[in-house]
Amino acid sequence: MTRMWRLVLVCLVFVLLVDGSTAFAQTSTSDWDPVTADRLLSPEDGDWMSYRRTYDVTGFSPLDQIDRANVDELRLVWAHSMGDGSRWVPTPVVANGLMFVAESDRITAFEVTSGDVAWVHQRSYPDDIRQSQALGRSRGVSVYGDMIYWGTADAALVALDARTGEQQWEVSTGDYSTGLGHAHPSLIADGKVILGFVGGDRSARGAVVAHDAETGERLWITYTVPAPGEPGYETWTENEIPPLGDLTWGTISYDQDLGFIYLGTGQPTPWASTLRGPGDALYTNAILALDIDTGDIQWHFQVVPADNWDLDSPHESMLVDLEFGGTVVKALIETSKIGWGVVLDRETGRFLHAFRTGFDNLITGWTDSGSPIFNPELIPTMADVDSDRVFEVCPHYHGTRNLNAPSYSPVTGLYYLGINNSCMDVTFVSEEYEPGRIYRGIASRAKAVPGYDYVGEFVAFDPVTGRRAWEYRSPGGVAMTASALATAGGVVFGGTADRRLFAVDAETGELLWETRLNGDISGAPVTFEVDGRQFLAVGAGGRIAQTTSFARFTDTNIPQGSGVMWVFALPDDISRR
Length: 577
Prior knowledge:
Blueprint: H1 3-18, H2 37-41, E1 60-61, E2 75-81, E3 93-95, E4 98-102, E5 106-111, E6 117-122, E7 142-144, E8 147-151, E9 156-161, E10 167-172, E11 187-189, E12 192-196, E13 207-212, E14 218-223, E15 244-245, E16 253-255, E17 260-264, E18 268-269, H3 273-276, E19 286-291, E20 297-302, E21 318-324, E22 327-335, E23 340-345, E24 351-356, E25 363-366, E26 372-374, E27 391-393, E28 407-409, E29 414-420, E30 423-428, E31 442-447, E32 456-461, E33 468-472, E34 485-487, E35 491-495, E36 500-505, E37 511-516, E38 526-530, E39 533-540, H4 545-550, E40 564-569, H5 572-575
Parallel strand pairs: 1-34
Antiparallel strand pairs: 2-40, 3-4, 4-5, 5-6, 7-8, 8-9, 9-10, 11-12, 12-13, 13-14, 15-18, 16-17, 17-19, 19-20, 21-22, 22-23, 23-24, 25-26, 27-30, 28-29, 29-32, 30-31, 32-33, 34-35, 35-36, 36-37, 38-39, 39-40
């Protein structure tokens, strides 16, 4: 190759990377069937076209080709080494034979059956992108029509052609220099792209925003912490800094009949009331129901009022109809960092009951109206600031659960979740506020639960009674890291910090199959069907919070390689039966 042609090639590669256009494409326009609103609302059994598959975010698949009898025959179809390898919590989505996987600065589309790369979209971030807390945390994308929608670390909504990866438009959603950015995929419903934000560890102000799916025009924005004069402001103590925090970095669910979207919110800024002052600090650590047309808050339920420990509640509100005393209730189930789950009436926010999920010494019970009853020995006073007093608080702020999502099976009526039992030693300290920096007022150190010889459990709960149906512990009691995936085949998938992707019986918890991958099972397993064959896909090697915080309690080695996408299926002679 001559020097001139080498220069041309280098320039071409540079242009492709900088302008975010497609590296290469193999999919023709004729192969693409637009993803309509109806397809998202009522997906086919073999579809996995949104983050938790359906708007009720149950994470359940009706596929049953892979079942109790044959799951141990699963074989690797293909794998692909990715660039991200830290805090990588991927959930792929699949549409029309293409799988879309997000990383911090790029989206890759794979041909599902072969593992060939169909296209890569590379984004170039500004030099000061490290101001955004979203950097390195992209968890997925959304698909609608002919487009892929990607919320980026520099607080933009980007629309890509799903067939080629070419960028069609982008709009700004916020100011990344304040810490804001997008890590979680959007909810697409009613012609809107609805996104939450990360940035709570940079003292940003929480919000959720809706944009028009066709044009990108902003339709509404709702701030989750109040300004002076707004409802809820009176629950904050007046300080030099206004109410901050309360970010919306989790999954959003949607009830089309009610016209409500549901989301959880994060911790206040500062974390500790010893810096913040007394008060519940609405709408932090809460479940919010918003009108999808206007963004107006319809009701709220505060899971952890007056937080002091970063035990926030930004996790998904699962929408399941449950029968209580002979009456079917439109219910909502939410589990979060605390060792409890709450069940609410999703029409009104009325508290139905709470159930314990894991070890917890902070909340001793709940009032009839749904307020947590805190252990008074763990509530700090101003006299504790910069003192020698150490509070043993359980769980650790990486939570009884974190980003690892639950799954619900309508076949068994059980709610499946990987949990971790942990504690932390906490001291309360004085601290000066600096914009764009974490503002906590606490120092902490993770520790094992006294007397426990394990951390992780994979548990099936009855959401009506709150009782455990069964639990599974992996060898060594290592931390649970993966989201749960229940299927109509009577199988539930999960994963651990020590590289084990496993399948258990949905009714009994009996281990049916496991395999060791490259690293912690950091993503959410998903399953889908292409050309009559059921596939299982998962990302591993993300070195996520539960792994890095809890692995040392079980002497678990943490591999340092990059993340990998893995795809499995039954052998042809079994899947074609």
